[in-house]
């Protein structure tokens, strides 16, 4: 989980975990690397409504998610987090788009050839043309984009589904999940 400061990386994880880690962070900003393990049965339970009509065989024990701080002072922690990833979520605030640490995180992922998905967070806010700009930018770069809300949970099941499909594809495993209309 990488991205610029205050994009909602930890809040997104909090919504998935059912926790409130972000509220306990100094100033509401992550100050250290955090890790969360999501067992396969938890992932299946969260995504079951989306995949109920598809035959899916996921052969992973679960997902270990590494949450990295977004402030510019923590570049080394983002680099370390990005270097151990098999797959990544690059979180972007739909209102602000790509910012300095977004580009830095993108470079880390590309240099280490880590497959990733861009999560356009905060879609619960009035975002005007922000989502359209992000969608166009990601489409032009050939990057996957999913719209999510850490506040309401909208898009989170689709994000987890896309992560599983992207991980399987990166490992050369077939999958029969459809291309989501929000997944570009």
Overview features:
Rossmann fold; disordered C terminus; 6 strands; four-stranded parallel β-sheet; alpha/beta; two-stranded antiparallel ribbon; 184 residues; globular
3D structure, described in words:
With 184 residues, this protein is α/β, with parallel strands linked by helices. The protein has a single domain (2-170), classed as Rossmann fold (3-Layer(aba) Sandwich). Helices cover 40% and strands 16% of the residues. The chain has 7 helices and 6 strands, in the order βααβαβαβαβαβα. Helix 5 links the parallel strand 4 and strand 5 (116-121). Mean pLDDT is 75; it is low at 177-184.
**What gap, in angstroms, lies between the N and C termini?**
19 Å
What share of residues are in beta strands? 15-25%
**Number of contiguous helices:** 7
**Strands of the largest sheet, in order across it?**
1-4-5-6
Question: What order do the SSEs take from the amino end to the carboxyl end, as H and E?
Answer: EHHEHEHEHEHEH
Overall mean confidence score, pLDDT = 75
Number of strands: 6
Please state the second-level CATH architecture.
3-Layer(aba) Sandwich
CATH-defined fold name: Rossmann fold
Low-confidence runs of at least 5 consecutive residues: 177-184
Give the proportion of residues in helices.
25-40%
Main beta sheet strand tally, sense and closure: 4 strands, parallel
User: From the alpha-carbon coordinates, what is the Rg to the nearest angstrom?
Assistant: 15 Å
**General form:** globular
CATH homologous superfamily assignment: P-loop containing nucleotide triphosphate hydrolases
Helical/strand content category: alpha/beta
- For the record, the CATH class is Alpha Beta
Number of domains: 1
């Amino acid at each position: 989980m990488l991205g610029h400061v205050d994009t909602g990386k930890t809040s997104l994880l909090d919504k998935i975990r059912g926790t409130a880690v972000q509220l306990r962070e100094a100033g509401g900003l992550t100050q250290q690397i955090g890790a969360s393990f999501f067992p396969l049965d938890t992932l299946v339970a969260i995504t079951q409504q989306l995949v109920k009509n598809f035959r899916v065989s996921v052969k992973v024990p679960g997902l270990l998610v590494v949450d990295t701080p977004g402030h510019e002072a923590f570049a080394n922690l983002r680099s370390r987090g990005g270097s151990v990833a098999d797959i990544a979520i690059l979180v972007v605030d739909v209102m602000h788009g790509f910012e300095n640490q977004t580009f830095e995180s993108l470079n880390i992922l590309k240099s280490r050839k880590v497959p990733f998905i861009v999560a356009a967070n905060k879609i619960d806010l009035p975002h005007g043309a922000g989502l359209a700009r992000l969608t166009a930018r990601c489409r032009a770069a050939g990057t996957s984009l999913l719209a999510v809300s850490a506040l309401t949970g909208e898009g989170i099941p689709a994000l987890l589904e896309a992560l599983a499909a992207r991980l399987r594809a990166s490992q050369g495993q077939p999958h029969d999940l459809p291309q989501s209309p929000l997944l570009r």
